[in-house]
Amino acid sequence: MKILLSNDDGVHSAGLKALHDALSDEHEVVVVAPDRERSAAGHSLTLHHPLRVVEVSQRWFSVDGTPTDCVHLALNGLLSGPKPELVVAGINMGANLGSDITYSGTVAAAFEGTLSGVPSIAVSLVSRGPFEFAPAATFSARLVGEVARRGLPEDTLLNVNVPDLPGDRIRGVRVTRQGKSFYGEAIVEKVDPRGRKYFWIGGGDAEWAREGDTDLDAAHEGFISVTPLHLDLTNEAAHQAMSEWSF
Ligand code: MN
């Protein structure tokens, strides 16, 4: 298969290299990734300034844009030859579980592939470092084989999170639902050298609700989590209920 790789940790990320090495024996792999870290870029697309592309090595492109820009360019004209048949984003240095999915540039890269009609997978390592990518890379290659055989439903991508364990201690694979996580008061307020206040988001651990069958449950219990996500954000129950509303 012809596979497009991208990420949000930047073109020099060791996670991207690990993914490339795991897939390039069996597949034709091309990399298009941001020139620097763009974690938490969400699904943003650059519309108001030009994008510069550098081929840093053969079939390995760096773009001064977001993960979404990279996939959008790659699937709409940057690459010569046939369109990639699969997009894989990652391996992200950190989890993309529960509500974090909406901030993630890694997952957004897979959203973008899906929007273009190309089956897409996002892979993340549930770790804050040091990062041992081998188990996630091995699993990615297996999952790519399975997706190649079975395909994916329309408008659906796979969000994969691999626990930070040696391969032989990972307990298995669970197909999960997206859970709910939330950050409490993880804003740091300080004063800069010129006496002005500044704020820095993040730093704390996310809280999450144990529900049993979610991505968060699986990752915390030592399983690889595979969540099928779709792009339709409609709340079907609310859609039904709101037919009663009078406007
Ligand atoms: Mn990242």
Compact description:
With 247 residues, the protein is of the alpha/beta class.
Written overview of the protein:
The chain has 247 residues and is an alpha/beta fold. The protein has six helices and 13 strands. It has a nine-stranded mixed beta sheet with strand order 3-4-2-1-5-6-7-13-8, sandwiched between helices. A two-stranded antiparallel sheet has the order 9-12. β1, α1 and β2 form a beta-alpha-beta unit. α2 (67-78) packs parallel to α3. The chain starts with a strand and ends in a 6-residue tail after the last helix. The model has no long low-confidence stretch (mean pLDDT 96). Manganese (II) ion (MN) binds next to β5.
SSE topology sketch:
Elements lengths: L1 E5 L7 H10 L4 E7 L18 E5 L2 E4 L3 H12 L7 E8 L11 H11 L4 E7 L7 H17 L5 E8 L9 E3 L5 E2 L4 E5 L5 E5 L5 E2 L6 H6 L3 E7 L5 H6 L6
Parallel strand pairs: 1-2, 1-5, 2-4, 5-6, 6-7, 8-13
Antiparallel strand pairs: 3-4, 7-13, 9-12, 10-11
Helix pairs in contact: 1-4, 2-3
The structure holds manganese (II) ion.
Salient structural properties:
247 residues; 13 strands; nine-stranded mixed sheet; two-stranded antiparallel sheet; binds manganese (II) ion; alpha/beta
The run of helices and strands is EHEEEHEHEHEEEEEEHEH
The radius of gyration over CA amounts to: 19 Å
Strand content: 25-35%
Low-confidence spans? none
Distance separating the two termini: 51 Å
